């Protein structure tokens, strides 16, 4: 999913379409609630793992040339999003020749892939890749989102140093390490150009704003709802990014399922939850922190909602032909169908909650359910980061290149990259909602389910 971006930090904040190696890219942010920087990647160290040897200047040059050529030959868009790819080579070659450390080559490769304005095409250092496979990321112990133009704390991890320091949802961030937050954001933005969408770009800014090395500290100035201030010092720690399925029965009697990534083990958990709720009068599926993941998982879960074969997504490639291999699949068709007779588990009304951290495959899922009229979508516009990675490419020294080779569309042909999914009912929370622990999107989802249920009852009577 997806000029000149100078990005010296990871862009794995959401999960890409990686079937065979979902460990790899479960790649903007929709991380677990604990992360204050990226969806699922640690940025503790961009150098090679301890004990490995530095690359020679010749090897670093080979990394650059191979990465540049792979993108030239395989990128889904032959126009490279309007970027002159030959000029990119001419610009970066002397910079590569002048560097002296592995850290610099990995930073440069991340910067070069950023030229494409594409959140899925990216380069990981060996350490970043190792953390991805471990499903770990470095967290400051809270998440923050932009609300009414200001960064607001939206969740705090229990037991984290942020929680101990008194950080609470709804607080507005005033400063970072003594610098006014507006100034710091401005500095970051001056070194960046847009990514896949405005939402993706904003998450990249916030990734840089709160990101940092493992065990490093961050001093944040905060303002409470009553106008008083707090200065908190937090320590960045490694936390798990592995998604799990959480369920609940809402006071309304409707079922609620939340999961934060399409990974293989989630399929079984989701199926069990759906079997448990199969007779529920309505279902809310919460994808607001779901950064995407495995294509096969997406198709399996979608199939549980249909009783016959249904067109669920479309895709396109650079050649206009199906890829012979895609992320572990023998062949990726240009039209993807879900379900067969007898597959359906749940037949009741469904509402899907989405937001700007709903990215990649979660956007394809929401769009498919929306276009087929199987679900109503509630929340705010999704990331708009919807491209497909066929396979990761390991370079000399262990760095890994991922390239967008597929662009995705809804069943009705809506291009999702750059646009995302626009909800049927748009609801944007306020800082006060977080302070008061209100969830207006969930409340609206319940209202929509009641309307859908009333409509079904009227049809049944008629």
3D structure, described in words:
The chain has 13 helices and 21 strands. It has 462 residues and is of the alpha+beta class. The protein folds into 3 domains: 22-135, Transcription Regulator spoIIAA, CATH 3.30.750; 138-240, Pdz3 Domain (Roll); 245-387 and 406-456, Alpha-Beta Complex (2-enoyl-CoA Hydratase, Chain A, domain 1), CATH 3.90.226.10. A 6-stranded mixed beta sheet has the order 10-11-12-15-16-21, sandwiched between helices. Strands 6-5-7-8 form a 4-stranded antiparallel beta sheet. Strands 14-13-20-17 form a 4-stranded antiparallel beta sheet. α9 links the parallel β11 and β12. α2 runs antiparallel to α3 (85-98), α9 runs parallel beside α10 and α10 (295-303) packs parallel to α11. The longest helix has 22 residues, at 440-461.
